[in-house]
Amino acid sequence: MRKPQTVNIVMIEDDEGHARLIERNIRRAGVNNEIRHFMEGTAALQYLFDSADGPAKNGPALVLLDLNLPDMSGIDVLQRMKAPDSPLKRTPVVVLTTTDDKVEIERCYDLGANVYITKPVNYETFAQAIRQLGLFLSVIQVPDTDVS
Description:
Layout: E1 8-12, H1 16-28, E2 35-38, H2 41-50, H3 55-58, E3 61-65, H4 74-82, E4 93-97, H5 102-111, E5 115-118, H6 123-139
Parallel strand pairs: 1-2, 1-3, 3-4, 4-5
Helix pairs in contact: 1-6, 2-4
């Protein structure tokens, strides 16, 4: 019997201040999973899909995704992850962004985002969302990869 895999958190956020705030709130919610932080979409995609210890090759992850990245749009990252032939199409994605445009929000959900949180957010709202995220992470069931 395999030991359960832990879920790695991949944070794609170019603003260091927001990244620290997100991580601090995740830790306050009692989530101690490893957090991999990327400031650019290109580096994050390389890790997600190609790295030996990345989610496509090495198990489950949760992605926290900013839409406004310096090198590409977070929408591009989301599209790559949720493509029909992607090994990451079932990976949960939480969009954390300053964009509150209803069209953009709808587009993210249409592409497969699981949660959309607008920042800067009210601290309590954000803390509640992160607590729910922590609860989600604590109960997530990782399917056995060697099921035939």
